[in-house]
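Hi P.,

Sorry for the delay on this. The queue was packed all week, but I finally got your sequence through. Input first:
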Amino acid sequence: MASTRATFASSWSRKINKPTRAIAEEARTTNGRQPPSPPPVCRGDNSLVELPEKAQVRFRARYSETDQMGIVYHANYLAWFEMARTELCAVRGVRYREIEEQDHLLLTVVEAHCRYVAPARYDDEVIAEARLAFSHSRMIGFAYEIRNAATSQLLVSGETKHVFITPDGRPARVPRKYFDLFGIPAPIGVPAAD
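Then the structure:
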């Protein structure tokens, strides 16, 4: 059974990776500029680690997420974006909880866009994927795709923009220690984070 799942997963990824590249390239462009590729991050033992460019979560559409017709209600896709974004941050070494507890900052959504292509229905297995679209010292953008796991059909694509704020709601710069993890180039003359 495990080998069947692995074969399915690898054949599925081959099927969607080629058409996804064009969509990803289009979504990656921000104001006509390509964001820089994330640099390898130097860990404590001086080894370089390549950060994953995207992350996926796989799950089934729950009955509570659908309307009377059995179609996933449109606002639930934003929650699915959040699931994928949270996973992307985790695999890149950043957990939202740590940002809130250690840095006393919140990463808040300031803009969200969804393009609905096809509906997800109750009990469909779906894959939500997130990747960094752009980042700079005041704002971070993520791009998303949600696909039907069985058919690889694109259901929804979208983007969100986020800013760091203090607990009292004031905008704050991205802490320097997260520059590498979010792919933000360090300002010239500023030493690297420890």
